[in-house]
Amino acid sequence: MLRIGITVGLRQDESLWNNGIKQNALFLADTLRRCPNVGSVRLVNTTDVPLPASLPWDASRWPVFPLNDLIHELDVVIELGGQLSADQTEALKSRGARLVSYCCGSEYVLAMEAMLFNRPLWGDRLFINQCYDAIWIIPQVDALNRDFFQTLRRRPATVVPFVWSPVLLEERCAALPHRGVYQPRPGPRRLSVMEPNIDVLKFCLYPLLIAEEAYRRRPDRITGVQVANALSMAQENRDFIALMHHLDLVREHKAVFTGRHDTPQFLSEHTDIMISHQWGNPLNYFYLEVCWLGYPLVHNAGLCADLGYYYAGHDVQTGCERLLEALENHDAGWEEYRALQRRVMSRYLPSDPKLVGRYAALLDAVVSRGAD
Fold it and tell me: Is the pTM of this model over 0.85?
């Protein structure tokens, strides 16, 4: 039975909602524990940050251990949320442990933007590990990143199933009204946009254009749009400010630009309909969180086109039509909608037998390949 370690890189101020990396590690751990060829799964910290007394997740369910304390006990180490050093790699390989690079970020885009726009990413600290036994890529980052990973890490890559669970979301929602679940309300709808706005992959402009088109057609049905993660652009970016003043939503004071928010609370307090757009990242925890709670999501994420209200590509007009559909019809079947979303999302859950079987086979393939 395999002893698995999944890396996390703890920082001083941990949060589960800044990005999905820590969540990904927890959900993968829950999945692998169900594999018949796995005896234990542990989260292992690769940084020098002391383990805090409390973590933003249940430490009894997902305990974290210093990697160096377990380096001689693990059969497979999956590098996910914290990078293995050259010394740790050598120590693991010297005793026959297998190393897996679990790729769940758009590293090609980050590297491109770092070099084009002078956003320091590595400096002289860049270490590219070329000693992996396998590279696993989640589906949404495959198209843009596969060859970036394969060439630099000198290993063929395999696409692996995406894993998600509502356990952390529901814990966070427990104290919210109606446990954070969407509730119908009378009157015009409150539109929201919550793209991170930190790179080209998920930016607020196309959702705003969709909201603008819908507002021009049905201003009586829209009370306004709130755009999160956009406060600094709205205050400081002259190009963004100039463009926004060509929108009726802005000129008629129907748009509000705010900073960062906790997703469940933002949905509960500010949102009737969420509008989203991605470019090269067609599946994301955020989409699943919105749909699990029953909120209408107007989106173009092709890997989950059967969720929410889908439009393809950059098609603002179709996005507008889907938004108008949600405006007019969502509340008539809101409970059925939520139930359908959850049935569809069952394919991502750690308890899904097909998903567990696939990961068991992937582990068998890793341990069966000969040592380099």
Answer: yes
